[in-house]
């Protein structure tokens, strides 16, 4: 039995490794096609990406991506496709930033307030989709993507002078009022720039995700509903309640996505607050196979690739090449997992068959001898 | 009998897995993954350890720090960080690129151009400016107000490098803030529009309702009203707030312009980056109406040349002048710092005359320009 487990582990590791290797091969072909030398490009990326200041950048960026991946993965485990993480985190960050700019409480009170505000706004926004799904049967794919557009419009409406907007001295940039210094989140200073303290919150969120899903009854119910709604219903799970609750939780985690940027970096919400992280989160959740550690590795890989893209551009390569790598990796991961899954399944069936056949032989022998 | 049992077992197994696949698969792989996760956890932990251990290692700065002290070696190296869109946007970024090209040709400068990505974070902008400064580029020019906070942070880290910031104002000491009086150029466009319109119905299409674009609208409206008090200006923005797609959606520009034309508007000024092309196209389809372009001379734009007969003029923002002057000052060893406002007086903003559509009203335009330069007319920056 032990031996089989080892093989399984190998199989499990094979998929992501295969995906990454294939992705790099495909990219090498693309680079060759554009008349550039591929290995030099990879060399630049690895060399630059492993420098100390790059590590700081990667950890900071991965913090945001990790939270986005978790928010999406929560939905995935439930068989809910929450495309709305993007709108949820932006709306959440916007209101949290507005609240943070308006208050001047001691940091110990204000920071949790800001984070709580973001989680509540994110949860409410995702909750709309959840309620629509259980009461009106609206697909969450459609409603969440529509809610993204509405979130953009709401922020656009409120981010104006005279409402929640605040004009800078040059009269060109509009943002929410900056959050007072006392409410900036702590950082870990390093020689090459600070690592955002929010990484601790992200790690805690990962632990909570793991614990809730695999060690609580709620997590069991959630996974059951994800695998078969009707079976869960039959065994006494209130599926509608589960849909709404898990959307709320997914939204609350999505609310955290903007917090590392807001509390550790920008301290305000302006027109250039990062957009599209919700969609990156989908890719990362896929990459990490909804597993808390897988997502972490996916987030770090994503951040590493982005760090490399800037340097590639500096060295005269097209920075779009990194976009190609990222896209190919996601495709490869999905394909590689399916290939490995099918192979594993066949292998297992063969083993079960062999075992049963052996048993059969044994019993036949017994029958004969008897 | 045992044979049948095997079959059932196998079938059961298959069913269980296919049902368990869900959206992204759990059951069998779930088991598999749990095993994998322990190994992965170990890998991750050791990787994290390695990461922290090397956290005090070599920084990318150390290997490449050659922060130049101006043009000491005689060779001018200019680093450009564009806003989203970059070189080739036929508008704002291209105007800055022209300044760079001029510096390359006339000052023999070596150049490096980097472009902002959509949806990036302040950290990405910092990395971009820092990599240019580290690479020995001096000056480093940041195009667009989105770089303001980044300049505030990065400029003090490279005190020997001169930075240029277009469209915003930073308080850092080694920064040349290049700003423009968009409202003055727009005022003149308003004068031209009021004089050319048949019944005084005039339109303004802004890309996004940002303060910067409102400056264009304010000046334009004032120019129209002070030339023909009976005229009316209809102001419309394509998108609002953080939705910046209004700067790159010709279809939206076209739709908005068609709506205005249907209501009898016959002169439309569009300050909307790439969306302007759509508006100009719509105007060209209706006889007797005029379009006013923005940022670059749009009558000379290869894609819009065919509509040159309806492009009355373009309000040009000469970002190239600002960029070139900064480059030249660095080369001369006297880098510009502080805020430099490129106004109508020094042709920082101006109207183009391609096609000679303004010939009959040039006198009145010159008169208005003189009044603005002399300070007799004070142009509003907000509507």
Automatic annotation (TrEMBL), chain A:
Single GO term (MF): transmembrane transporter activity
Membrane topology: Multi-pass membrane protein
Keywords: Cell membrane, Membrane, Transmembrane, Transmembrane helix
Transmembrane portions of the chain: 56-76, 88-105, 111-132, 141-159, 195-213, 243-263, 321-340
GO cellular component, one term: plasma membrane
Subcellular location: Cell membrane
Keyword Cell membrane (UniProt): yes
Main localization, broad class: membrane
Record's protein name: ABC transporter permease
């Amino acid at each position: 039995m032990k031996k089989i487990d080892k093989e399984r582990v190998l199989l499990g590791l094979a998929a992501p490794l295969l995906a990454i290797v294939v992705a790099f091969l495909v990219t090498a072909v693309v680079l060759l096609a554009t008349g550039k030398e591929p290995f030099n490009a990879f060399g630049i990326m690895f060399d630059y990406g492993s420098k100390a200041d790059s590590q700081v950048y990667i950890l900071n960026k991965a913090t945001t991506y990790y939270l986005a991946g978790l928010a999406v993965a929560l939905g995935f485990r439930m068989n809910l496709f929450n495309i709305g993480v993007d709108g949820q985190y932006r709306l959440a960050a916007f209101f949290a930033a507005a609240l943070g700019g308006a208050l001047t409480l001691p940091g110990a009170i204000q920071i949790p307030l800001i984070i709580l505000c973001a989680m509540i706004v994110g949860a409410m926004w995702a909750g709309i989709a959840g309620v629509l799904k259980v009461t009106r049967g609206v697909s969450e794919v459609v409603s969440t993507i529509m809610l993204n557009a509405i979130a953009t419009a709401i922020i656009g409406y409120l981010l104006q002078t005279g409402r929640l907007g605040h004009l800078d001295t040059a009269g060109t940039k509009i943002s929410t009022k900056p959050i007072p210094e006392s409410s900036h989140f702590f950082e870990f200073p390093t020689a090459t720039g600070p690592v955002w303290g929010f990484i601790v919150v992200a790690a805690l969120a990962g632990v909570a995700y793991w614990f809730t899903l695999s060690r609580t009854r709620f997590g069991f119910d959630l996974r059951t509903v994800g695998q078969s709604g009707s079976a869960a219903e039959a065994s006494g799970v209130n599926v509608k309640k589960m849909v709404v609750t898990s959307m709320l939780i997914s939204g609350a985690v999505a609310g955290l996505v903007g917090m590392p940027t807001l509390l550790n970096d920008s301290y305000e919400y302006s027109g250039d607050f990062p957009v599209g992280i919700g969609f990156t989160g989908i890719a990362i959740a896929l990459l990490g196979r909804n597993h808390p550690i897988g997502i972490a590795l996916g987030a770090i890989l994503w951040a590493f690739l982005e760090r490399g893209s800037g340097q590639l551009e500096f060295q005269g390569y097209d920075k779009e090449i990194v976009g190609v790598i990222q896209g190919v990796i996601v495709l490869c991961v999905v394909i590689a997992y399916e290939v490995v899954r099918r192979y594993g399944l066949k292998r297992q069936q063969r083993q079960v068959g062999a075992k049963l056949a052996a048993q059969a032989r044994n019993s036949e022998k017994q029958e004969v001898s008897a | 009998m045992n044979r049948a049992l095997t079959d059932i077992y196998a079938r059961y197994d298959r069913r269980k897995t296919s049902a368990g696949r869900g959206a992204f698969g759990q059951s069998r792989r779930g088991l598999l993954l749990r095993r994998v996760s322990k190994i992965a956890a170990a890998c991750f932990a050791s990787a994290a350890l390695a990461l922290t251990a090397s956290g005090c290692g070599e920084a990318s700065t150390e290997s490449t720090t050659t922060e130049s002290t101006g043009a000491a070696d005689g060779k001018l190296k200019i680093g450009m960080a564009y806003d989203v869109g970059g070189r080739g946007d036929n508008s704002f970024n291209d105007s800055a690129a022209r300044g760079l090209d001029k510096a390359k040709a006339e000052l023999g400068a070596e150049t490096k151009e980097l472009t902002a990505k959509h949806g990036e974070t302040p950290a990405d902008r910092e990395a971009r400016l820092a990599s240019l400064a580290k690479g020995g580029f001096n000056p480093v020019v940041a195009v667009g107000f989105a770089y303001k906070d980044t300049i505030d942070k990065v400029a003090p880290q490279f005190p020997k490098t001169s930075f240029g910031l277009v469209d915003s104002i930073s308080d850092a000491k080694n920064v040349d803030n290049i700003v423009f009086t968009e409202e003055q150029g727009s005022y003149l466009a308003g004068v031209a529009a009021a004089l050319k319109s048949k019944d005084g119905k005039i339109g303004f299409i802004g890309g996004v309702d940002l303060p910067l674009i409102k400056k264009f609208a304010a000046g334009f409206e004032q120019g129209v009203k002070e030339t023909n008090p009976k005229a009316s200006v209809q102001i419309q923005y394509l998108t609002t707030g953080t939705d910046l797609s209004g700067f790159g959606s010709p279809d939206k520009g076209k739709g908005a312009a068609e709506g205005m034309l249907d209501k009898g508007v016959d002169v439309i000024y569009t300050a909307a980056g790439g969306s302007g092309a759509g508006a100009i196209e719509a105007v060209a389809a209706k006889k007797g109406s005029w379009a006013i372009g923005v940022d670059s001379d749009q009558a000379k734009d290869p894609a819009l040349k065919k509509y040159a007969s309806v492009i009355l003029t373009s309000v040009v923002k000469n970002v190239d002048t600002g960029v070139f002057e900064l480059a030249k000052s660095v080369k001369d060893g006297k880098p510009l710092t502080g805020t430099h406002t490129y106004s109508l007086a020094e042709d920082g903003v101006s109207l183009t005359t391609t096609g000679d559509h303004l010939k009959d009203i040039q006198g009145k335009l010159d008169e208005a320009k003189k009044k603005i330069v002399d300070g007799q007319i004070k142009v509003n920056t907000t509507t």
